[in-house]
Amino acid sequence: MHGLMSLDASNIQLSFDYVTLSAAPSTKITGLNPAHIKGEHVIVMDGVYDSGRTLNQAVKYVNSLEPKSVRTAVLLQKCNPQNLAYSLRADFVGYG
User: Fold this and answer.
1) pLDDT at 46
2) What topology is assigned to 17-95 in CATH?
3) Would strands 69-77 and 41-49 be described as parallel, antiparallel, or unpaired?
4) Which residues are 70's β-sheet partners?
């Protein structure tokens, strides 16, 4: 089984927060419950990864809430990672 793995998810508890992030003129994040973050493993997901600004701001904010770990995922990476304005790289990329 190339790259596929079976996982027994019966003991895994998941919670999802859907947030809105607006980055102009200043960063504002709404819809996130900070109590869901502290001490937890977190995946920050973004639909389109262009300059990296939105994901960078979201990760900074999530890190301020003291998670156990933070990983990042994007559905589409539009540009070459070497041309990004921020040093943050997505851990998981769907396409790009």
Assistant:
1) 87
2) Rossmann fold (3.40.50)
3) parallel
4) 42
